[in-house]
Amino acid sequence: MIESVNLTKFYPPPIKSLFDLKSLRDFLGKPREKIPALIDLNFKVREGEIFGLLGPNGAGKTTFCKIANALVIPTRGNLYINGYDSVKEHDKIKGKIFTIFGGERNLFGLFQWRVSVEKNLKFIAELWGIPKGEAEKRINYALELLNLRDKRDEWYQKLSAGMRQKVYLALPFIIQPEVLILDEPTVYLDVFTRREVWNAILELSRDFGTTIILTTHNLKEAETLCDRVLIFNKKKIAEGKPKELIEKFQALKARRRLLVKVRGKVKTDDFEGIAEKVNIYNQNSLTYLELYIQEEHIREVLRILANYNVVDLQNEAASLEDVFTQLIKC
Ligand SMILES: Nc1ncnc2c1ncn2[C@@H]1O[C@H](COP(=O)(O)OP(=O)(O)OP(=O)(O)O)[C@@H](O)[C@H]1O
């Protein structure tokens, strides 16, 4: 359904000024270094999947989303959506794809400030050619799902930033695109609103069969929502189901975090050469011990802990965040 084939984007280097002589000479003279954003990126997204694009700042996530919307032209390679080139054949897909740029609210002045939420949504539904009655049904559904029903008659201007973001996120329920691109959709949201949005995204995938590409810096979000993820930094680094990537990572490296509650004092020296890092906090008669260890040292640590009066021990398993930080560091 979506296929990225050797997708590559180099942005032109910045031009300081063409009015001072030195900059003009530089511009005409030496070859200037282009800015790489994507390099030979290959992957496929299946129909109905939630696919995560994960990368550090500057990895190329937004560039990818812009190519999907024909806002940026790739230097080479192609991005196919439903078999059509996203840039050269954009006309064929433009009614089928919708993008939310979460980090850049109201990017295209989509919403009218001094107009109610409902009127704004109705206007956009009309733009997308959705019949009136159907639009009303979809708007009711979206406002209910996103817990915005009491904001229906409120001016868009009067909403908090998080509420505006939710109004933005109501649009996929109204437009019902085949492909939805969510570029950091929960970036400014509090934990409760974020969960509401997660549910909405899952519902889009489950009940509407929408194919979703999601970019996020919240790796818990990626782990919760995505069927598969691509970890990249301009170039591909890894691809797979979050669970599989975590299992692979655990088998390969497995840096564990043990949280131990001990009655009495603990000697840090006991863990020297075994733990990568030891943190100790004392509170009343209890010691809270945080140990970062390699999988292979678990037995040894347990042997040492047997000498203490251990009240509680928690073994924190690896997460997608561990995989991500490890892979990006390499
Ligand atoms: N219009 C532009 N002109 C020049 N360089 C650009 C332009 N847009 C992006 N870049 C560069 O391309 C690279 C990728 O940027 P992009 O915004 O796609 O990354 P990102 O993964 O979305 O980052 P973030 O997580 O910080 O939003 C960066 O080095 C960035 O500076």
Automatic annotation (TrEMBL):
A GO term, aspect molecular function: ATP hydrolysis activity
Pfam families named among the record's database cross-references: ABC_tran
SUPFAM superfamilies: P-loop containing nucleoside triphosphate hydrolases
Keywords: ATP-binding, Nucleotide-binding, Transport
All copies of domain ABC transporter, residue ranges: 19-258
InterPro entries: AAA+_ATPase, ABC_transporter-like_ATP-bd, ABC_transporter_ATP-binding, P-loop_NTPase
Alphabetical list of SMART domains matching this protein: AAA
Gene3D superfamilies, alphabetized: P-loop containing nucleotide triphosphate hydrolases
Protein family per UniProt: Belongs to the ABC transporter superfamily.
The name this protein goes by in its record: ABC transporter (ATP-binding)
Organism: Pyrococcus furiosus (strain ATCC 43587 / DSM 3638 / JCM 8422 / Vc1)
